[in-house]
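Notes to self, Nucleobindin 2a:
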Amino acid sequence: MMSRTHNKMCWSRAFLTGWLLLLVQLLCTQAVPISIDKTKIKEAEKKPEEPPASVDTGLHYDRYLREVIDFLEKDQHFREKLHNTDMEDIKQGKLAKELDFVSHHVRTKLDELKRQEVNRLRTLIKAKQDIEGGNDIAVDHQALLKQFEYLNHMNPHTFEVDDLDRLIKSATKDLENYDKERHEEFKKYEMMKEHDRREHLKTLDEEERKKEEEHYEEMRKKHADHPKVNHPGSQNQLKEVWEEADGLDPEDFDPKTFFNLHDTNGDGFFDEQELEALFTKELEKIYDPTNEEDDMVEMEEERLRMREHVMNEVDSNKDRLVSLDEFLVATKKKEFLEPDSWETLEQNQAYTDEEMREFEEHLAQQEQDLNQKAFDLQKQRDELERQQEQLNAQKIELQQAVEHMERLKSQKVEPPPEVHGEGNSIPEIYPADNQVHPEQDAQPEGHQAAPQAAQDTPQEHHEQQNLDQAQQGLPQTHQDLPPGHQEVAQDQHNVP
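result:
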């Protein structure tokens, strides 16, 4: 098997899935084929192999992290320094100082990776600003980049020792909090599920509520009715995998062979994903995606609980990996041979009654705040509608006023057109009714040719002048005539 020194070299995958502290992937032993009986197992011949595909850590800078590792492990000097570097020294950043001695080609590529990452972060910041509607606000990228602690934003152009140190420490801290955050999210999920159930019951009448409660209890009992779940990492649990998954005789169980069988990438360690795969058979006893009573979100939480338990029991150096040596030591403990019973999620409620009460109070407060905001928005909407109605009314009034002025302008009295008569003959307009009498206009030509001057008296001449004035828009009725002329006009009107 691999030596202690060789084990140190096989930690690139560990860096990604656990502490993310090891930066090199070296040659490792191959996994033994499952179909071969353990008595016939031989050490596989060592031959060069490609490093296994990196596992996504779930970090938002996972791609940048993996690309940095890929190029660092290509430098021979960096690989050699790893042999003499203790795990604690790596955590404290001593390995990062060796970055000054890597090849120019690797440093140049690391510089390029950092510039790409900084540009990616700036794009994300700008996109977030656009979504929030702040297109016209100047962005202080330097201030916003401070939140990304895994790189030195003050120097966006070159990858330095400080950048590698920041990357190691940030990834370590973020992964340590990752499981904790997953548990908190699951707790919220369970409390929200219970809250929704209670709210649904409030909408039912007494008979329907009783039926719903009975159905709920029936589903709970049905989910809890499953085969015994073995303690994760115990001899019974591993033997069951050995027999059902590997197809081997449980009487021939051998811990070392079991380790080699399930170290799927052959790096000499059980990482978190490889450990979780060992619990699939146990989880299938409890959860079936086709059953109404089984929640697959709960299944993943149960898987996480099992993996954390084994890590706490077996991972002695707390590097989030289980080496072969750690695994063999664990198989000799009493807990491995005679484990306690394993309590599943239905036996361990994810939240307390007090946490549920606080959660519902928080939801109620959120609902109250949302209702208040909705009320304020509705009030603003009503006010805007009222203002719009006022504007519409003012607009109508303005249109009416304009139409009225246009109407007055069109009704303003215009001077009559000039009348061109033959000789001194003009149509006679009677002052009393301001009308032209067409019968007079239609008199025979002989009557019109009578000498006007011989017929007119001075008084009649004066009246004729008044008639001329009426044609020009001056007062035309006898009421509008000056004093002294009204009686004359009236007498003239009464002449047969």
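- The radius of gyration is 50 Å.
- The mean pLDDT is 76.
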